[in-house]
Amino acid sequence: MKLTTIATTLLLSVVQANVVKRDAQFAQGEPVDATGKGGPILGGTNKQIDLQNPDGLGAQSTDNGIVPNLKWSFSDSKTRLLNGGWVREQVITDLPSSHDIAAAQQHLKKGALRELHWHRVAEWGFVYNGSVEISSVDENGKYEVATLNYGDIWYFPKGVAHTIQGLADENEYLLVFDESNFDAVGTTFMVDDWLAHTPKDIIAKNFGVDPSTFANLPTADPYILPANVSKSTVSGGGGELTGKETYVYRTLKSQPEPVPGNGGTFYKIDSTNFPISKTLAATFVTLKPGGLRELHWHPNAEEWLYFHKGHARATVFIGNSNARTFDFQAGDTAAFPDNSGHYIENTSATEDLVWIEMYKSDRVADISLTQWLALTPADIVAQTLKVPQSFVEQLKKQKQVLIK
Known about the structure:
Blueprint (H helix, E strand, L loop, with lengths): L2 H19 L25 H6 L18 E3 L5 E4 L2 E6 L11 E8 L3 E7 L3 E7 L2 E6 L5 E6 L3 E5 L4 E6 L3 E8 L10 E3 H6 L3 H8 L16 E2 L22 E3 L13 E6 L11 E7 L4 E6 L5 E7 L1 E9 L2 E8 L2 E5 L4 E6 L6 E7 L7 E2 H6 L3 H8 L3 H5 L8 E2 L1
Antiparallel strand pairs: 1-21, 2-3, 3-4, 4-11, 5-10, 5-12, 5-13, 6-9, 6-11, 7-8, 7-10, 9-14, 15-16, 16-23, 17-22, 17-24, 17-25, 18-21, 18-23, 19-20, 19-22
């Protein structure tokens, strides 16, 4: 072999070696970028978590500064097993960045009851599997008994007495509360727990019966208990809660919001179309594969999110050059700071991304970056961003919301 051929072969080998070395390795769970910056993880690590969070390995060169953790997975929560179902929560001790909202996933078997109770905070629920019956009574003796299926929502104002029963073989729903420290004493009150700690002669006098009626009163609240599916009906009192007073909203029987970007569907559920929901506003969003929830921020509240299906990425900008990118999958929750700029991208090429947004507010509000720039004098924007004025002049003046 000629020397020139040998030299060429060696040179190609070196070049190829350098190319391999400079391949970004985030998808393989290693913090190595395309320039060779970084290096493999040699110490203890959870490879599956690394693979699920490539942006946590430094994949985005635009990330900068210190941004607190804004993500929590329900899979990291402690699951409480009960006779008739289970519950797992996300409260402020799990996700300290969520200052306004706590949440839970709750599961009921057929007939199982989330026992009679009330809260000093508002409760919002979204059914995502099976079917449940809610029963509630307000301070005027008005009541509501309703069956809820996939996509249906309930909202109980603080103090409203209520219960939930599973109707299908297996039932599950998301619970959201307008209080981040939901486990604090004095937040939830169970009726049997109350009566168990009240003298029996007082209970008997209150109801006008013999004390023996309460011989089998539970000494500890069961939280969720097995039961038979209710066959009773309710009448009298102050009458049924209907119209603007109803605690139930049928999301999928309502019209979604306009989405000029044609990237999916966007349902808004707040006091403008669900009048009783005065302290919690929500959206139910489906984003097509590869789609983008446009760059925006919320002027009126912190944003809490629950990812129901699919895979996502979001970069959150909290000001002063601080930004961090997070990866999300089904079961993850997140809390984006009040007024922080962000987007949400569906990182799947084949699967829809489905999530719920919550705000401790009476309404959903956002400001679109594109719309803001389009409705600002074009020469000012061009000089600020160092971009052609022609680019600014063609920006869309209508929110795109979800971009395909």
